[in-house]
Design goal:
mainly alpha; 83% helix
Length: 112
């Protein structure tokens, strides 16, 4: 359907959904839905960025979303990730140190 080969597409839909009957209502509905979906996809892909920037409200929305993204990036939006990573590392060091100390205590008790 995307390459405008509708006859072959109808045969495929009939084979899959309509028990190989092209005039079946299920085949027709499925074919129509698929054609409409692909057609709207073609229209949406042809619009591009010009449709976003044509009207003033769309430009305002675009600038607002970009400014929020930039503000979040510069204000340390990933700071939480950095802190949690450093906290995990510090906890691993503390656990290793505690484990080493308990091993020393156990070894000293065994030697007595």
């Amino acid at each position: 359907m995307y390459q405008d080969r509708l006859d072959e597409a109808l045969e495929a839909v009939a084979l899959i959904h309509g028990n190989d009957v092209k005039k079946d209502i299920v085949t027709f509905v499925q074919f129509q839905e698929t054609t409409d979906t692909i057609g709207s996809g073609k229209v949406e892909s042809s619009l591009g960025m010009t449709a976003v920037s044509k009207t003033a409200p769309n430009r305002k929305r675009l600038m607002l979303s970009l400014s929020v993204a930039v503000f979040t990036m510069f204000s340390g939006g990933d700071l939480r990730h950095r802190i949690s990573t450093q906290a995990k590392l510090m906890m691993a060091v503390v656990q290793a140190t505690a484990s080493f100390r308990s091993t020393l205590v156990l070894c000293s008790m065994v030697q007595v």
